[in-house]
Specification:
Layout (H helix, E strand, L loop, with lengths): L21 H7 L9 H11 L2 E4 L10 E4 L2 H9 L9 H6 L4 H11 L3 H4 L1 H5 L3 H16 L8 H13 L6 E3 H6 L1 H11 L6 H17 L9 H27 L5 H7 L1 E2 L2 E2 L2 H15 L1 H16 L1 H9 L4 H11 L10 E2 L4 E3 L2 E3 L4 E4 L1 H4 L35 H18 E6 L20 E6 L1
The structure holds protoporphyrin IX containing FE.
Length: 449
C-alpha cells in the first residue's frame, strides 16, 4: 500500500464529491471504509441534515434511527432526564434489535444474571447513579482519584519505551498505545499482569459489537453473538475467581475495595462487582489506545507541536484536549439512545421508540462550538469543552484516568524522543470499521534524546 504521509493523513478531507448526498449520509457513516471520509461527511451533515434519518433502524419495529451531529443538540440530549433510563425492560423485549438480548440470555443461563441486572440494582435513578459514581468509581478513576496512579502510569509508560527506544523505530499501536492502558486498568483492578494476553482476548470480545456490528444498533449476526458471548462468559468466570480470591485476601486494588465497601447500607454482590469490573475493562482499554495513537500521529505530523510541548510542558493538557476533541476515539455513541416519547428536534418529528445516534465526533467539529473547529489550537479558551467523554449523568466515569495517561504519555514521549516522524513506506493510515476511530497501526521513527 502507498504511504499517504502528508498533512492530510487521518481522514482529512477526501473530496466532497466523494460524499453521498445528505439524505443517505446517516447510513453511509456506518458503511465499510467510511471512516476515511467521516470528517468531511460531518460538514455536510451540519449544513444539510443535522438530524439525519436512517429508515428502519429504530428500536421499535417500524421506527427509524436519527443521527444527531450538532454540538448543542448532543449536549442537551445527554443532559435530558428523559434519556437517563436506557431502554425500558418491556420495550427491550419488543425491540427489533436482538443482539445484546442474546448475550444477556446467555449470561443468565450461565449463572451471571446478577451481573446482567446490576444496572437496575446499583443505579436505577439519577440520584443513585450519582452516588454509585462518587462512591465506587471516582476514588479509583475519577479526576482526583486517578492522581494516586501517577507514579504507576509514569513507570509503565517509561518501561514500554525502554523496550524499543534503542531501535529508532516502533509500531506504536502494539508497542505502546495498546499495552499502556491495558497495564494501567489491569493494575487498578488488581488482576495479575501476567494474565494480560488472556485479558486482551476478552477485551476484543467486549468491543466486537462496536467494531464489527452493523449500523447504529451495532448488531452482530446471531451465531457471532453466541460465540462472542461464550468468550465473555469465560471473562465473567475469570473475574469471579478474582473476586473469590480478593474476598478472602483483600489487597490495595479496586476489586478488593469493591468486595469490602458498604454501598447503600449493604455489601455488593459478586455479580455487581463483576459488572463494574467488566465496565472498567471495556471502557478503559481500547478508547485510550485510540487517543494515544492519535496523539502520537499528531506529534509526527507536527514537529512544531512536539517542540512547543517540550519547551512548555504546561501546554500538554491543551494538546491532549484538542487531540481528544478532533479525534474522539468514540466518534459515535454506543447502542443509541431510546426515544421514550414522541418529540421534535430541529423541526424533525421523532416518534417514540426511535433511536438517537449521538455523533460525538461530529459535535466536536461543529462550527458553532468554536472558531476554526478543524484546527488544533493550544490557546483555546475552553479546551475541555467537547463531547468526547459525553456529558450529563451518564458521561464517562474513566475520564480522569484516561486524561492522566494521555498527559503523562505525551510528556514522556516528547521528553525521551526527538524528531518523531512517520516511517517511510510503512503507513497507510487506515482505520478499523465500526463507531470508534482506531488506526490499525502507526509506524514511527525517532531519534533518542
Ligand atoms: C479516551 C478514552 C475514553 C473515551 C473517549 C471514553 C468515552 C466514553 C463515552 C463517549 C461514553 C458514553 C457516555 C454516554 O453514552 O453518554 C463513555 C462511557 C463510559 N466509559 Fe468511557 N471513555 C474513555 C475512557 C474510559 C476509561 C479509562 C474508563 C474506565 C476506567 C471508561 C469507562 C466508561 C464507562 C464505565 C462508561 C459507561 C458509563 C455509564 O453508562 O454509566 N472510559 N465513555
Amino acid at each position: 500500500m502507498t504511504d499517504r504521509m502528508t498533512d492530510t493523513v487521518n481522514m482529512e478531507p477526501a473530496s466532497i464529491s466523494a460524499c453521498p448526498v445528505a439524505a443517505d449520509l446517516g447510513a453511509e457513516l456506518f458503511a465499510a471504509g467510511s471512516q476515511e471520509n467521516w470528517f468531511e461527511s460531518y460538514k455536510v451533515l451540519h449544513d444539510e441534515a443535522p438530524i439525519a434519518r436512517i429508515p428502519g433502524k429504530g428500536w421499535l419495529p417500524g421506527t427509524d434511527a436519527f443521527i444527531v451531529s450538532k454540538f448543542e443538540d448532543i449536549a442537551s440530549i445527554t443532559r435530558d432526564p428523559r434519556f437517563f433510563d436506557l431502554m425500558p425492560e418491556d420495550v427491550s423485549a419488543a425491540a427489533s434489535a436482538g443482539s445484546s438480548k442474546i448475550e444477556n440470555e446467555i449470561f443468565r443461563e450461565e449463572g451471571f444474571g446478577e451481573a446482567a441486572d446490576a444496572r437496575q440494582t446499583l443505579r436505577p435513578t439519577v440520584e443513585q447513579h450519582k452516588r454509585y459514581r462518587m462512591q465506587l468509581w471516582d476514588p479509583w478513576v475519577g479526576p482526583e482519584g486517578a492522581e494516586q496512579h501517577r507514579e504507576m502510569v509514569t513507570a509503565a509508560a517509561n518501561d514500554l519505551i525502554d523496550r524499543w527506544i534503542d531501535d529508532g523505530e516502533v509500531e506504536f499501536v502494539t508497542q505502546f498505545a495498546a499495552p499502556l492502558p491495558q497495564t494501567v486498568i489491569t493494575t487498578i483492578l488488581g488482576f495479575p499482569l501476567q494474565d494480560m494476553p488472556t485479558l486482551k482476548k476478552y477485551e476484543e470480545a467486549q468491543v466486537r459489537r462496536f467494531v464489527f456490528g452493523d449500523g447504529p444498533r451495532n448488531e452482530l449476526p446471531d451465531d457471532v453473538e453466541r460465540e462472542n458471548a461464550a468468550v465473555l462468559v469465560d471473562f465473567h468466570r475469570y473475574i469471579q475467581s478474582q473476586v473469590d480470591e480478593k474476598r478472602q485476601n483483600p489487597k490495595e486494588d479496586m476489586v478488593s475495595f469493591l468486595t469490602q465497601v458498604e454501598y447503600e447500607g449493604r455489601k455488593l454482590s459478586d455479580g455487581e462487582i463483576i459488572s463494574i469490573a467488566v465496565l472498567m475493562h471495556i471502557g478503559g482499554n481500547e478508547t485510550t489506545q485510540y487517543a494515544l495513537t492519535s496523539e502520537a500521529l499528531l506529534l509526527a505530523q507536527r514537529p512544531d507541536l512536539a517542540q512547543e510541548l517540550r519547551a512548555d510542558p504546561s501546554k500538554t493538557r491543551f494538546f491532549v484536549e484538542e487531540a481528544l476533541r478532533l479525534y474522539a476515539p468514540t466518534q459515535g455513541g454506543a447502542g443509541g439512545r431510546y426515544v421514550p416519547e414522541d418529540m421534535e428536534i430541529r423541526g424533525v418529528h421523532i416518534p417514540k421508540g426511535s433511536l438517537l445516534h449521538l455523533r460525538f465526533g461530529a459535535g466536536n467539529r461543529d462550527a458553532d462550538l468554536c472558531p476554526a473547529p478543524e484546527e488544533l489550537r493550544l490557546d483555546r479558551k475552553n479546551p475541555g469543552r467537547h463531547l468526547t467523554f459525553s456529558m450529563g449523568p451518564r458521561n464517562c466515569p474513566g475520564q480522569g484516568i484516561s486524561r492522566l495517561e494521555q498527559n503523562i504519555a505525551t510528556q514522556v514521549l516528547v521528553d525521551r524522543l526527538d524528531n518523531i516522524r512517520f516511517a517511510p513506506g510503512k503507513n497507510d493510515f487506515t482505520h478499523q470499521p465500526g463507531i470508534m476511530l482506531g488506526l490499525y497501526n502507526l509506524h514511527l521513527e525517532f531519534d533518542k534524546r
